[in-house]
Amino acid sequence: MLNLDISVNGERRVTSAPARTLLVDLLRDHLGLTGTKIGCAHGVCGSCTVEVDGLAVRSCLMLAGQVDGRDIRTVEGLSTGPELHPLQSAFWEEHGLQCGFCTPGFMMAVATLVESGEPIDEDAARAAISGNICRCTGYDSIVAAVCRAAASISEGQTA
Amino acid sequence: MGRCPVKPPSLEYVSPRSLDEALAVLAENGDEARVLAGGQSLVALLNLRLARPRVVVDIRRIDELHAIAERSGQVCVGAAVTQAQLAAHPASTGVALLDEAIPHIAHQEIRNAGTVVGSLAHGDPAGELPTVAVALDAQLELRSVRGSRTVSARDFYTGYLSTQIAEDELIVEARFPVQAAGSVSAFAELAPRQGDYALAGVGVALTIADGHVAAADIGLLALGPTPLRARASERLLGLAVEELPVGEVAEAIASDLSPKDDLHASAGYRRYLASVLTERTLRTAQGRIATAAPTP
What pTM was estimated for this model as a whole? Predict the structure, then answer.
């Protein structure tokens, strides 16, 4: 068993897990944060994407020991109260999801980018989401959501 | 808690804080230990149970392995440096082929965790970094409890996913030559979608002196069991840059290859891609010579 001292969505979590536990399993099964999904378990589909130390990574390709002492943000960390994160509002307004299985992964892939305060054009949005697979939407509504979220944050900052 | 089905097999995980500690674990466990750097190759293998090490040695806590430095005309990259960190570091602009190739690696999420040296150690023939290392003759420093040795990337790859590394060895650093004044490079690959494994790829590095090719190195990816170096690049030596027989060299390179038919592409298609991408990169390099500063 490994002892782990990590920060998840701003909250310190001290826990332990068998050495072979993947980060995605730690989040889902040990910490009850089931927003992060397992789609392929080998890093291709993007549904397991979370942020570790501010960078988007595949939680299915990390062992729990690799995040000891580090900061993790999952989709649950985008909004902790009644108000939606601009990404969540934008996905809702643009119909950027249908079944929603891929959605947390898409959001965590672009969260830091949209929060940067710079507007994003379509090409940049498509590049940013190129590591995520969606079976339902055909991607255009996701691209629109990403651009919309970045625009609203950018406008909010200049307002 | 209940039974949680997991992908990886049972293993022991250690996270030493010093290189000596890590080397001792490797020495003690031999081929039952695997080094964990970014995990973008190893953890996938664990999830598919294609690797079943007794112990995984995470090197991220070894401070000295996180360094990027320019020393004696080389960009030196420590074993724990991620692909994203190298791409963002000013030193990487000194190795243009590397700088151009890194954005082609998978996706940002992979590059944020995956390491430069880990990719070199894994040696996937479709990997951008092993091919760039072979093209540029990068040097790899290997350490063990027995000492240290430096291996040229051109000698390092012995077969499919096989390298010269011994059971108890760890690559601590990769060194890429800073490109000389008057050299140009170009990289191109073709993949079904952005970030997929390439079906074929070419990296060229040309050193120009007095308007003529003084050195020509061409690396090829996804065209054989290892990253390859094209012999036909010799045909460019001594020629004036405006008179390079690009089509002829492209054809010669393609006909030297023996790729296999597989699920993703036929051998013939891969040879065709090799020819097209060689031509494309050589013409791009020619164009860059025209706009580069003249050699003093």
Answer: 0.96
